[in-house]
Design a protein that fits this description.
The protein has 4 helices and 3 strands, in the order H-E-H-E-H-H-E. The protein has helices spanning 6-14, 35-51, 64-70, 72-75; strands at residues 26-30, 56-61, 80-84. Helix 1 packs across helix 2 (35-51).
C-alpha cells in the first residue's frame, strides 16, 4: 500500500474506536504531501481498506508531479485525487 511501517499504520488505525464516522466521507487536505500529511493519508487509506469506508481524499498540492514521483502508491490510489494550488491563494 505504501512505504510506511505496517505496524505504525495498524497502531494509528487502532487509536480510533469508531471509524464509521468516516463512512462515505469526502476529505479535503492541505499539507497532505508533507511529512504529517503523508502519514494521515496513509492511515486513512489503511482504515478505508480495513473498514470498507468508501472515503475520498482530495489533496491540495503545489506540485502534483513531485507528489506522484515521491509517493506513487498513494497518488495512484483510486480514493486519492489531487488539486493543484496553493493554500495562500
Amino acid at each position: 500500500m505504501n512505504s510506511l511501517p505496517k505496524a505504525d499504520l495498524e497502531n494509528i488505525v487502532a487509536l480510533i474506536d469508531d471509524w464509521s464516522q468516516f463512512k462515505n466521507a469526502r476529505i479535503f487536505m492541505t499539507g497532505g504531501t508533507g511529512l504529517f500529511g503523508i502519514w494521515m493519508v496513509s492511515a486513512l487509506l489503511k482504515a478505508n481498506l480495513d473498514f470498507n469506508l468508501d472515503l475520498e481524499i482530495t489533496i491540495l498540492t503545489r506540485n502534483r508531479e513531485v507528489f506522484i514521483s515521491q509517493h506513487s502508491t498513494l497518488a495512484s490510489d483510486r480514493n486519492v485525487q489531487t488539486l493543484i494550488g496553493d493554500v495562500a491563494n
